[in-house]
Amino acid sequence: MNNFKQNDLKPIIQNTNNPRVGVITLSTDFTIEQDFRKICHSLPIDIFFNRIPFINPLNHENYLKMAEHIPEVSQQILPGEKIDVIAYGCTSGTIAIGEEHISSQVHKSKSEAKVTTPITASLKAFKKLNLKNIAVLTPYPKDVNVTVFDYLSKSNLTIDSFNSFNLNYDSEIAQVSLESLKESIAKINLDNVDGLFVSCTALKIVDILDEVEKKFNTTVISSNQAIIWDCLQLLDMNVKISGYGKLFNS
After folding, report:
1. Phi/psi at 53 (nearest 5 deg)?
2. pLDDT for 48-73, tens place per residue?
3. Which of 29, 77, 185, 223 has CB 3.0 to 4.6 Å from 118, enough for a Cys bridge?
């Protein structure tokens, strides 16, 4: 064809009725998006991600800077479209900013959305599985860990032991190997606790949740596992998913 000629075709337009989940993930997070895809790949939901500006290292001041960006980042998840659930993907950042403030910031641009965070979801998971006395593993530096400890304690949880890798950057956290995670968990006394809480959306723990639970005869709640579970709960999708811990079969 020497001259342009367009053939007009008539498509069939079909709307999807799948519920929509919007995920706000840190600009520096390597992991949470991959975990959502792994766990939810066969479910009838549509997931949309947007990243919020964050500058490492992990500290209270940098966490607070994110709050002002939440309305715009939420609005940019399918602008003008309804989102059923928005998940704010930072555990220690939520503790610094506050669960209620995050919800109010999201609702400035997505007023109809239900909102969850990793710590919101984890507290629901502890209650669901009746976990009251827990051990904690985080990758955070000490100053951040103090805020996590205080938050969990104020939520009527007993902390039997608090363990940390003392890392400052999400890039380092995402590179903690699965073998290192298993070796570190083996050093934590889990005999007298109801379960283990692994905090941080950047840690790649979901792939070994089943293995750890079986090997150490315990229950594990991790940030990404919990927030994905809670998104499904908020959508009234009470599905059982194998391979990612007892929570998904509760």
Report:
1. -60, 130
2. 999 999 999 999 999 999 999 999 99
3. 223
Q: Please, what CATH class does the domain formed by 120-222 belong to?
A: alpha beta
Q: What is the CA radius of gyration of the chain?
A: 20
| Per-residue pLDDT reduced to its tens digit, 129-170 | 999 999 999 999 999 999 999 999 999 999 999 999 999 999
Q: What is the CATH number of domain 20-119+227-240?
A: 3.40.50.12500
**Which spans in the chain are helix H?**
32-40, 60-65, 70-75, 91-97, 99-107, 118-128, 142-154, 170-174, 178-186, 209-216, 223-234
Parse the chain into domains and list their residue ranges: 20-119+227-240, 120-222
**CB atoms < 10 A from the CB of 186, how many?**
11
Residue 119, classed as helix, strand or coil, is: helix
What does the DSSP 8-state code read for residue 89? E
Name which of 67, 65, 49, 48 is nearest 57 in CA terms. 65
Q: Using CA atoms, how far apart are residues 136 and 154, in angstroms rounded to an integer?
A: 15
